[in-house]
Amino acid sequence: MGACCGGCCGSGDFDDDYAKFVDANTSSTQESGPPVSLSDFELLRVIGRGTYGKVMQVRKKTTGDLYAMKVMKKSDIVMRNQVKHTLTERNVLQSVRHPFIVTMHYAFQSREKLYLVMSLQSGGELFFHLRRERTFNEGRVRLYGAEIVLALQELHRHDVVYRDLKPENILLDAEGHVCLSDFGLAKEAVTSLDNGASTFCGTPSYMAPEVCEAQRGARNSARNSRNSPTRRSPCAQVLLGTGHSFPVDWWSFGTLLYEMLVGAPPFYSRNLHSMYRAILYGELKLPNALPRTARALLEGLLRREPAQRLGSAGDAEQVRKQQFFRPLDFRKVLARAYTPEFRPSLLSAADTTNFDSTFTDENPTDSVGNLPPGARAGDVSGLTEADDDADVENGASNSLFAGWESFSRRRAAEPGEPTATAGV
């Protein structure tokens, strides 16, 4: 797979930098060291919780390195027909290595649970900081945006559509650089599908119009066929319409930029159906205070017709060339050579003050329960999923997770890549 090069990078040397910081790591993703198990780690703090499990800060006993461990209960995954999505997340994390995508270091399973051990991003979720500050200044948004563009470019290079870009899935490392996480809704080999991906999934306020339209058509078709002996499920009906591909990520990227600059997603409503209608038909309102270059970028990214959307022709290269990013050299962005305006406040490598106290106050045990009282609604209710294919009917079986092979990353991180330890 060849790296893209854009005019905004200054020269074709961007390909050389890509080979240095990204492609050099690709060959090592299949290398595996000695297997590990839960007993190799000390559980320190709960730092997050989602639909199928929780994330804990852990320390590897033999090295003292800090990691983030995602624990998922197999029975919950099977019950919700998410075996395929869970295996996809593991596959993406093993195959993709990038400065702005979280690194998986270990993967293993027990009889009841699945474990992913990833680099610890001690700056916490971007959502945590955006909620406190409401908006970020243009320079801060520009660097965050540039790093996310390169992360999406890498996913698309691997024929993966992300489908769940939002502030909760963007983490900050100790230096303030961003890292994409949570690939449970990602879709692999999307270009091999005749009509693109068809699953109705994502966070409603960040969904692209083509995803909303597909679900609306599915509901209408299902309603009209209730008395039919050959009635299809909503998921099957989605397959009859147009699918989606990489442009959905660029719509979500535009929504993210808008929220960081303005303070809320462009079509947000507490009423879910009103929000879907606004995404499909509502006017894009851009505050007059937005810089001209930011307005032009948002107008390009938030076009309802996927073929006309910025990024649909040339993918990330087309986005990188926009005037909004002109002050940045993307070779330096890739090399993490720019110093972020905001650096998370950390008292120590194990400091968890940048994570929600709803989670950090929990007892870090190897159990997966319900969301604690007071947890953010966005952690679960903002997620709507329907699998392309049903995984199983009932019951958790280890054979379903045969693809979840043990993995231990052998090689140390390269210069310019986030490390496993959360040093300050």
Cα-atom radius of gyration: 21 Å
Q: Which class do the helix and strand fractions yield?
A: alpha+beta
Q: What's the helix-strand series?
A: HEEEHHEEEHHEEEEHHHHHHHHE
Helix segment count? 13
Q: How do the strands of the widest beta sheet line up side by side?
A: 1-2-3-5-4-11
Shape: globular
Distance between the termini: 35 Å
Bin the strand percentage.
5-15%
Low-confidence stretches: 1-8, 217-241, 369-396, 413-424
The whole-number mean of residue pLDDT values reads 80
Measured as a percent range, the helix fraction is 25-40%
The strand count comes to: 11
Task: Summarize the model shown.
32% of the residues lie in helices and 12% in strands. The protein has helices spanning 13-26, 74-79, 83-95, 126-133, 138-157, 209-224, 234-240, 247-262, 272-281, 292-301, 316-320, 330-334, 357-360, and strands spanning 41-49, 53-60, 66-73, 104-109, 113-119, 124-125, 160-161, 170-172, 178-180, 187-188, 407-408. The longest helix is centred in the middle third of the chain and has 20 residues, at 138-157.
Q: How does this model look, in words?
A:
The chain contains 13 helices and eleven strands. With 424 residues, it is α+β, with helices and mostly antiparallel strands. A hairpin with a 3-residue loop joins strand 1 and strand 2. The radius of gyration is 21 Å and the shape is globular.
SSE order and pairing:
Blueprint: H1 13-26, E1 41-49, E2 53-60, E3 66-73, H2 74-79, H3 83-95, E4 104-109, E5 113-119, E6 124-125, H4 126-133, H5 138-157, E7 160-161, E8 170-172, E9 178-180, E10 187-188, H6 209-224, H7 234-240, H8 247-262, H9 272-281, H10 292-301, H11 316-320, H12 330-334, H13 357-360, E11 407-408
